Amino acid sequence: MKIKLLSILGSSDEFFFEHRVFNGFIFTGFILSLSAIITNILLNLGFKVILASFLFAIFSLIIFYISRVKRYYKLPSIITVLILIFILSPSIWITNSGSGGGSQYFILLFGIVISVFSKGFLRAIFLISMFIVIVTLLIVETKYPEIIIQYPNEFSKKVDIAISYITSAIGIYILFIVFTNAYDSEHKKVLSYSEKLKELAFKDSLTSLLNHGKIISFLEMEVLKAERYERSLSILMIDIDFFKKINDIYGHPFGDIVLKGVSDILIENSRNTDYVGRYGGEEFLIVAPETPKDNAVIFAERVREKIEHFQFPNGVRITASIGVVSYQKEGFKELLEKADQNLYIAKGEGRNRVVST
Predict the structure, then answer these.
(1) From its phi and psi, is residue 45 left (phi > 0), alpha (psi between -120 and 50) or beta?
(2) Ordered alpha helix ranges (H), the chain
(3) Contacts of 287 (CB under 8 A, 6+ apart)
(4) pLDDT at 7
(5) Angle 349-353-357 from CA coordinates, rounded to 5°
(6) Is the dihedral of CA 124, 129, 134, 135 positive or negative?
(7) Residue 249: which residues within 8 A CB-CB, separation 6 or more?
(8) How do 320-326 and 354-356 pair as beta strands?
(9) φ, ψ for residue 241 (rounded to 5)?
């Protein structure tokens, strides 16, 4: 039932937070008006009392259509609050035995609604207006009691007060469900956006690999671990051969496809413990903890062969050169320089090969 109700009010993708809560209130108001009509008829409370509930039911239905279907919020919400304060509250008070009837429970509900749908100075104005209306009604009731429509008998009074209490409580509960659900949806959105921002901070936007800064920070961390715990560590510097030529012949969009394809190959052939990043341009860096030189060379050859045999769109094939180096008590900058030197040697020896030290 909760899921069906929330689907009637709209999803967080369709409506912002306050709009969803407003839909919930108007829908709740319509349901409560229908129950009030039935109750007033059964208790024989008179035509004016029944008419007041009927008119609010029609009003709720119209506003719900404008808000939910047509997706207008600001003007309908202000109109609704004004009608609650200056029309509905006095009419309920007058037609339900004033302060001695069940009107106070609905007015409490209206106060909650006003607090939700208005903000800042406007909220203060609305709440002060509500207070003035209530005080005015108390004064009018005291000086002109004949204006107030009384219950026909004590039984009707007790039943109407009980029903007013129950329906108001139900209305507040439904609003609470809508409010908490809307808040939860907004909170999840904020968390999702936060995660995306974190991801953008350390991931390359094109390849989804670690960006230059993040892969270097991981390398620095792994060098410290290797030094402290005397563990093996290797890195692979990978460069796509003749990448500029690929861009010149096929265009930069195709070059992006090649970069993404190579990135996927690197990820698919790396371990979960390896760090794979885009070092810059068409260069990639893999940091492989707990990997001695011989294993790193085997790993590099496997990657090189996968790239060589991969077929891109239009039958295009490419190759890559790889420089491999293993940690030997040097700092991470020296390690990078050695990997770059080995990559340079691989390029000079004809490309599409692995050079290691």
Answers:
(1) alpha
(2) 2-9, 17-42, 47-64, 74-83, 89-95, 103-117, 120-143, 154-202, 212-229, 243-250, 252-268, 293-309, 332-348
(3) 215, 218, 219, 222, 233, 235, 274, 275, 277
(4) 65
(5) 85
(6) positive
(7) none
(8) parallel
(9) -70, 135
Closest CA to 327 of 298, 288, 276, 271: 288
Q: How is residue 72 annotated by DSSP? A: -
pLDDT at 109: 73
Looking at the chain, the domain(s) classified CATH 3.30.70.270 span: 212-356
Residues 116, 183 contacting (CB under 8 angstroms): no
Return the number of other C-beta atoms located less than 10 Å from residue 18's C-beta: 17
Q: How far is CA 26 from CA 58, 77, 243, in A?
A: 11, 9, 61
Helix (H, G, I), strand (E, B) or coil at 172: helix
- Tell me phi and psi for residue 352, to 5 degrees: 55, 50
Which residue matches tokens 């190959």? 265
Query: What class is the 212-356 domain?
Result: alpha beta
Query: Integer distance in angstroms from the first to the last C-alpha of the chain?
Result: 67
CB 257 within 8 A of CB 313: yes
pLDDT at 4: 55
Structure tokens at 297: 């060379």
Give, as one character, the DSSP assignment of residue 207. T
Please name every residue paired with 275 in a beta bridge, in sequence order, or none if there are none.
287
Residue 32's pLDDT is what? 80
pLDDT of residue 157: 82
Three-state DSSP string of 234-251: EEEEEEECCHHHHHHHHC
- Sequence length of the chain is 357
The whole-angstrom separation of Cα 309 and Cα 314 is: 14
* Under-70 pLDDT residues of the chain: 1-9, 12, 116-117, 178-179, 182, 197, 199-200
- By CB atoms closer than 10 A (0-12, 13-18, 19+), residue 272 is exposed
Residue 150's nearest CA partner among 86, 107, 93, 110 is 93
